[in-house]
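Hi everyone,

Forwarding the result from last night's run.
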Amino acid sequence: MRLRPSTSHWGAFSAGLDENGRLQVAAHPEDPAPSPLLGNLPSALTDPNRVAAPAIRRGWLERGPGPDPKRGHEDFVEVSWDEALDLLSAELRRVRADHGNEAIYGGSYGWASAGRFHHAQSQLHRFLNVFGGFTSSRNTYSNGTSSVVLPHIVGTANDVLRNGSSWPTIVANTELLVAFGGVPEKNVFVTPGGVTRHHTPGFLAQLADRDVEVALISPLRADLPQRLAAQWYPVRPATDTALMLALAHTLAAEGLHDRHFLDRYCTGYDAFERYLFGADDGTVKDADWASALTGISAADIVDLARRMAAHRTFITVTWSLQRIEHGEQPVWAAIALAAMLGQIGLPGGGFGHGYGSMGDSGDIGPNFQVPYLPQGINPVKQFIPVARIADMLLNPGTRYQYDGAERTYPDIRLVYWAGGNPFHHHQDLNRLREAFARPDTVVVHEPFWTATARHADIVLPTTTALEREDFGSGRRDTHLVAMHRIAEPRGQARDDYAILAGLAARLGIEERFTEGRTAREWLEHLYGTWRQRLAGKGIFVPSFEDFWEEGGFRLPNTETDRTLWAEFRADPVANRLATPSGRIEIVSETVASFGYDDCPGHPAWLEPVEWSGGERAARFPLVLIANQPHTRLHGQLDGGAVSQAAKVAGREAVRLHPDDAGPRGINDGDVVRIFNDRGACLAGAVLCMDLRPGVAQLPTGAWFDPAGSLCVHGNPNVLTADVPSSQLSQGCTGQHVLVEIERFAGEPPGVVVNRPPVISRGREM
């Protein structure tokens, strides 16, 4: 059996088919900590949920395009590729002629393949740009709130999210790591585009070997590896900002803050201090005040503040903290707190964001541009914040605020999705189902019968990365990996490029889209152009033939040690930040001028709806944390062996504290119903002590399996609220939701999402 190289978002590997046709996978030999998610790959080729042929929803085929509440409820009819592409090209022409290109939504948000050429979103956007443009999406579900607020505070989001202090710097210099949201090791195996060498687990082990003090601030003990002997502060969910403000108040009240740093490198501190001491609202944000909100004792808060001032302290905030109502506030408050300590720009001190949220945060791989497919320029300037898709579809013409501007939702008639699954990422899935009934046509490219494919009108089967050639490399990846074809395409699957080239030919834009190249010729062209560009900089890159034969190329790297904002600290005049003041804006006059009551001009405690201290908790007393799974990437390959092994009674596992399970008569392994007034889902109960009482944890990514308003498989997004973090960012708030949980009585309905929908094969193929 010959193993050929490839890569995925969770790791580089080699794979091949054995004599029985089964996929065998081996991690990259240079990977010091291969991801367990590689164990999900063997099912990708044989999953019974593969889309076998082009399929069209019966109602759309028989009645034509138009809004339809039966979308997601009807069977499909398999058709030939020619018929599918003829129908789709005619529909694209109709929508453009009758409503304009703005009526086409091509958000296509998703992860899809790690390959840089067969990156589904890039392929679709290139095609739609050539076709005349489309309404696009902006930002991400992962860190969309931070991406908007950080430029107002420190001038750019990119430095924080992509070029933060490196792990070697932290390991060597940090004395106290204060981890809001922890550093969840399960997430560090994933980076968009691929990972060849997983460095972070090794650095976490080094932190443990050095006995670095760690303060874990999270309701979940699992948010930090057990080998790190941390002091655990099981904070009440959604109250991290209150804790940060109290820590800041202690620093100010006891004179432990660095006035020199605040005066030279920051603006607005005096107004922020007035807020801490309640000069205007009458509420002093001290440790006693925060203790009542957070559940952390006042003595522990004061002690932690003093230890932070006495040590080289690194404050990190996971992305999870900004995926809530008012998610701007913990990010902003943490930066203000780090500024008060005066250690920003010093090795091992300051602020970080996303450590434990993604594999490239703090990584030592090169910051190197690899070959990619150009998307062209979108002639349509209309866009929406990515998490507002249901609002857009349900409320065309409605005005809304975004980052200081008033915008209007377009009237979308055709949704085109390739390589993503909004029925995984989005909140309040019953509302999303209603929204997906509104367009005239929904088109999906998919290898699998995901919930999004089941709610489409036209489903076109695509290949997986194992069934085509490409090259892949992630952010700060150490290698560009040659992705060889491991297996032949399943059924009638085609790659996105072939599908879109066929459409382009019918629409008269084939030459502009393909430029006369096959997929293999594109790989050679993109690689060759990249190679020539690097040769001009004196960097040797092997020929494409040698690269393909070797299976990859190690990318040059000269940077392994970096400290965020070190240059700014060294000379804040020559290296001013891209803020109006050129400094860290603890108070932003720009944000204040927007007049948003849900995001003022400085860090503030704003009470959320979905928290245990609010009125809603009287009906739904448990806080459900919907975080990332440790058994898969989002919802990808949920049918894989690793993902399936973690199911309980065939459903996603929900973790409960025994103090919450006992009064509800719930035992380990029971099927439970988790519900609120938006919907309900079934899950399998796992009782454990390592989470705060009053908190339950159900990971995202179980494939949505609706039976009415109930998801029988355990998708928490039937429960989460489809509301924005604020008017500033319009970000996702899917991390927390209030629920009640009860033991399911009787025989639970079966999971059916693990097999395809009803498909007719009566038409001529």
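The chain has a mean pLDDT of 96.

Cheers,
N.
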